[in-house]
């Protein structure tokens, strides 16, 4: 799978508005490409690194949410984190804030949305995980309305365009500076979830059992949710909201390596990165202009999810 | 193995709509099986949850040896005490092996992974509960009986000195009930103290060293099986006529209900 990802990265470097040969890409990596090629490939390379980080990050966040809530439908989008984060980003954009404030606002609103989703779920007293999904839909609805209001008052010349760009997801505007400021946050989130991935298995059990196993259920759960939210919010900062990846990639990975998060989480990272590299390559090369990424991930994600459901995989509802 | 004991002194618990318990004084020590009997809704699960540290807002005291349960950190507690909950509908796709491995969680920090010794222990426990052929099977694909055995296995992997079991046989057919009761007997022979709740007095006569009755008026009585289990005490306990006969083949009293 990892080798497949490397091949995909290589292919993705070749494909674009200016298609390049394998030799030219190889020369770039060896450091002796001519300056024009180097310029194109440098941009492409930065973009692909961002795509890999976001793909891996969103998928691991999805896998984490699914484990912690023991619900196969839990994903950054369904829990409202993504919409919440884009509300944060939109408000910051409205105030012409610099990138790090946009990042912070996205994170804070992402966390606020998850917390409110959990509070509503708590009030519903639902024994099944459907309560959580409902709460997520409720919070997403609220965040959509807030986002709508922000868009309504935004300057249509400049701000509105930026906000809409956030909503549909695209790596078009990702440059070195954006990658350097947000990339490390995603790397930290990925590393944290990777080293704590066995604990996620424990958190799939009911709270009383987790407690008697000797693990503080709430503390562990909240730490995991915080890092998954951090990853989601950071991804939203970099490229806006990208649908489906966080939901379907964990399922694909679990089909391949089983449900043990010690294997499923690294696999989610690789599959997520690979799938998003494919989606982004399509998004930037299929037409003259970049098409929003959520359109592509939607067309890829829907049939895959239907296939997973038909195959009878238990998604925990 | 040194002698280890669990004792409660005037243990009471009342919270919201949970069943209450009142002034329970129970004792159990290494190698003993204490079976707690009582009708539905009398507070057996509440008592079990107090004893296992799930409910901590109790009055009175619960002592593990001489240490108050509340004062013991959850990590340290999990090395001494393990709970087998009533739930057999474990909603996990993990394999039996990976599920049992979770019993070692508290032996590691959040950043570490289980090691070879943990895996060896899990293998041993799987053969003790007799599910070697299901080692890699997902729990979702197991029967209720197998899931309950898996629960017991997960608790054993904690290497506890005391095992608390909430109606471990309630969802099981006869064969699986016998499997569980045999395991209970084996564990007590190995020096583990066991507290087990059930509806069925016949299970008490099979495995118990002592029996505790949670009676309707919220009093708790504990004594040896012979002392406590009588037609009268059980008829009062379950508010329905219960008759015992001595069975020559089984060499013990068998309790039956009367339709009236």
Task: Explain what this protein looks like in three dimensions.
- The complex is a heterodimer of chains A (317) and B (260).
- Chain A is mainly α.
- Chain A has helices spanning 2-14, 22-30, 35-68, 81-94, 99-124, 130-153, 159-168, 176-195, 197-203, 207-213, 217-239, 245-257, 261-285, 293-310.
- In chain A, helix 13 (261-285) packs across helix 14.
- The longest helix of chain A is centred in the N-terminal third of the chain and has 34 residues, at 35-68.
- Chain B is of the alpha/beta class and 260 residues long.
- Helix content of chain B is 32%, strand content 25%.
- Chain B is built from 9 helices and 13 strands.
- In chain B, a hairpin with a 4-residue loop joins strand 12 and strand 13.
- Chain B is globular, with a radius of gyration of 18 Å.
- At the A-B interface, helix 9 and helix 10 of A face helix 2 and strand 7 of B.
How would you sum up this structure in a few lines?
Helices cover 77% and strands 0% of the residues of chain A. Chain A is built from 14 helices and no strands.
Helix content of chain B: 25-40%
Helix tally of chain B equals: 9
Give the proportion of residues in helices of chain A. Answer: over 70%
Shape of chain B: globular
Main pleated sheet of chain B: 6 strands, mixed
Strand-residue proportion of chain B: 25-35%
Characterize the main sheet of chain A.
Answer: none
If classified by CATH, what would the architecture of chain A be? Orthogonal Bundle
What is the second-level CATH architecture of the domain at 5-87 and 161-257 in chain B? 3-Layer(aba) Sandwich
Instruction: Output the helix-strand order of chain B.
Output: EEEEHEEHEHHHEHEHEEHHEE
CATH topology of chain A: ABC transporter involved in vitamin B12 uptake, BtuC
Q: What's the count of strands of chain B?
A: 13
What's the overall average pLDDT of chain B, rounded? 90
What kind of oligomer do you see? heterodimer
Shape of chain A: globular
State the CATH class of the domain at 5-87 and 161-257 in chain B. Alpha Beta
**Gap between N and C termini of chain B, in Å?**
49 Å
Question: How far apart are the termini of chain A?
Answer: 29 Å
Task: Quote the average pLDDT of chain A.
Answer: 88
Family (chain A): Belongs to the binding-protein-dependent transport system permease family. FecCD subfamily.
Main location (chain A): membrane
Membrane topology (chain A): Multi-pass membrane protein
Subcellular location (chain A): Cell membrane
């Amino acid at each position: 799978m990892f080798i497949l990802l490397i091949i995909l990265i290589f292919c993705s470097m070749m494909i674009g508005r200016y298609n390049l040969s394998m030799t030219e890409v190889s020369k770039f990596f060896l450091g002796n490409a001519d300056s024009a090629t180097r310029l194109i490939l440098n941009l492409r390379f930065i973009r692909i690194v961002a795509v890999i980080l976001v793909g891996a990050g969103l998928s691991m966040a999805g896998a984490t949410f699914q484990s912690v809530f023991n619900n196969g439908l839990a994903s950054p989008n369904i829990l409202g984190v993504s919409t919440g984060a884009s509300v944060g980003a939109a408000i910051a954009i409205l105030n012409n804030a610099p990138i790090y404030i946009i990042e912070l606002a996205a994170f804070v609103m992402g966390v606020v949305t998850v917390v409110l989703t959990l509070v509503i779920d708590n009030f519903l007293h639902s024994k099944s995980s459907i309560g959580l999904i409902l709460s997520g839909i409720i919070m997403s609805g609220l965040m959509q309305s807030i986002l709508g209001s922000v868009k309504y008052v935004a300057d249509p010349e400049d701000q509105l365009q930026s906000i809409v760009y956030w909503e549909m997801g695209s790596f078009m505007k990702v440059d070195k500076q954006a990658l350097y400021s947000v990339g490390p946050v995603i790397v930290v989130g990925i590393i944290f979830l990777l080293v704590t991935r066995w604990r996620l298995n424990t958190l799939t059990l009911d709270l009383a059992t987790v407690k008697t196993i000797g693990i503080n259920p709430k503390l562990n759960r909240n730490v995991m949710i915080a890092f998954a939210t951090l990853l989601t919010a950071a991804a939203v900062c970099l490229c806006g909201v990208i649908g489906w990846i966080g939901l379907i990639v964990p399922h694909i990975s679990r089909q391949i390596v089983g449900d043990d998060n010690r294997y499923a989480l690294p696999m989610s990272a690789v599959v997520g990165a690979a799938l998003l590299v494919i989606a982004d390559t399509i998004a930037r090369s299929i037409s003259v202009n970049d098409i929003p990424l959520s359109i592509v991930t939607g067309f890829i994600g829907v049939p895959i999810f239907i296939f997973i459901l038909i195959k009878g995989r238990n998604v925990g509802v | 193995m040194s002698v280890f004991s669990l004792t409660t002194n005037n243990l009471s618990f009342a919270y919201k709509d949970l069943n209450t318990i009142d002034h329970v004084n129970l004792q159990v020590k290494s190698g003993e099986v204490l079976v707690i009997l009582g009708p539905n809704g009398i507070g057996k699960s509440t008592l079990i949850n107090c004893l296992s540290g799930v409910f901590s807002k109790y009055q009175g005291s619960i002592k593990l040896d001489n240490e108050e349960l509340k004062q013991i950190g959850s990590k340290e507690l999990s090395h001494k005490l393990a709970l087998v909950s009533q739930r057999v509908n474990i909603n996990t796709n993990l394999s039996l092996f990976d599920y049992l491995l979770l019993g070692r969680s508290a032996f590691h920090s959040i950043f570490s992974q289980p090691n070879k010794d943990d895996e060896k222990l899990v293998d041993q426990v799987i053969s003790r509960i007799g599910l070697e052929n299901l080692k890699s099977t997902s729990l979702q694909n197991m029967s209720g009986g197998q899931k309950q055995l898996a629960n017991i296995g997960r608790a054993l992997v904690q290497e506890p000195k005391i095992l608390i079991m909430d109606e471990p046989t309630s969802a099981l057919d006869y064969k699986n009930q016998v499997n569980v009761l045999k395991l209970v007997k084996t564990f007590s022979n190995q020096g583990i103290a066991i507290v087990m709740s059930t509806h069925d007095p016949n299970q008490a006569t099979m495995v118990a060293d002592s029996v505790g009755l949670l009676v309707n008026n919220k009093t708790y009585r504990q004594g040896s099986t012979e002392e406590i289990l009588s037609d009268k005490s059980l008829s009062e306990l379950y508010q329905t006529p219960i008759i015992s006969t001595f069975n020559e083949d089984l060499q013990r009293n068998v309790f039956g209900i009367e339709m009236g």
